[in-house]
Write a structure and sequence with these properties.
Elements (H helix, E strand, L loop, with lengths): L8 H8 L3 H6 L1 H15 L4 E2 L6 H5 L4 E4 L3 E4 L6 H4 L7 H4 L1 H13 L4 E6 L1 H10 L7 H9 L1 H24 L4 E5 L8 H7 L1 H10 L7 E4 L7 H6 L4 E3 L6 H8 L4 E6 L8 H15 L4 E5 L9 H21 L7
Parallel strand pairs: 1-4, 4-5, 5-6, 6-7, 7-8, 8-9
Antiparallel strand pairs: 2-3
Helix pairs in contact: 3-7, 8-9, 8-10, 9-10, 10-12, 15-16
The protein binds coproporphyrinogen III (CP3).
Amino acid sequence: MRQAGRSLPEYRAVREHADILRICREPELAAEVTLQPVRRLGVDAAILFSDITVPLVAMGVDIKIVPGTGPVLERPIRSMADLERIGQFEPNTHAPFVADAVRLAVAELEVPLIGFAGGPFTLASYLIEGGPSKTHTLTRKLMYCEPELWEQLLSRLADIATASLRAQVDAGAQAVQVFESWAGVLSVDSYRRFVLPAAARIFAGVADLGVPRIHFGVGTGELLELMAEAGADVVGVDWRVPLDRARARLGAQTAVQGNLDPVACLAPWEVLSEHVDAVLERGGGRGHIFNLGHGVLPETSPDMLKRIVERVHQRSSTAQTTSPTGGAD
Ligand code: CP3
């Protein structure tokens, strides 16, 4: 998630003199902000500081990240001719700073680093709409009206994600996550027909690397099985879906990640801790990665985040020692 984003004072201090894309382009800065939440919160994994738009920006696509809004393009992608602007991504040529940041972060970290890429639907939506959208109307319209253009765009975006993830793992990332944040706007049939093939290419394209592959989306309760079918080892779910139900639907071969409501982090500890316990309870221990259901809100208190991490550690270690098999989870 955008976890360091906006809630940590030490992150804000860096942001005072550098915009997001500059932090992403400067390996020392990117590595430093990657480490910040690990140092302060004691979480069990770090996520690389970068953005889903970074490969596209590095290839010359005119995307700006506007604070409080998100990625914005002056010239959206709407035709076959526009597609020429989305070329082949060569990580070592276009964005060597990403691998450099991974190497610097991994050298300092005592926990695994998660590399990531934007999912094809989510990136296509920014490219087609020209900015964030609630309904993704232009995106879905293009998908239905120009299936050939859609397929070519998604296949290019899948190749970009695959190349980017491979470069991050080569540089030392120990897990990968595909952020298909906005796919929840699609029906099951549309997802299966218009997005699943591209998603499956990404997961197949990193399968030989042997790292866990996480597939996350918001409002994707009805898409969980398909997101697993794409080839993910772990499916991330938001707070709407009870984790025990997600697990029942996904089966024992797929782990789940999630799913504390980010807004619960704004409640007093007595309320928040109940939410945390409920997530752990429904997550069921082994095969569950505790996380928020989406990114940390800017107004969240870092102290509350720290208490959540402590609570999860405390409850998980109790669960381990009382587990009937006695095995470490
Ligand atoms: O440490 C971390 O925060 C992880 C690094 C990270 C960022 N973006 C940096 C960032 C990650 C994993 C992302 C992923 C990302 N970016 C997603 C997928 C995950 C999700 O949240 O659904 C999406 C959809 C984006 C696109 C994007 N970039 C949005 C919607 C925004 C928010 C704009 C805003 O200000 O509300 C961004 C900007 C961005 N990227 C921030 C961070 C930390 C926001 C904070 C800031 O302005 O410094």
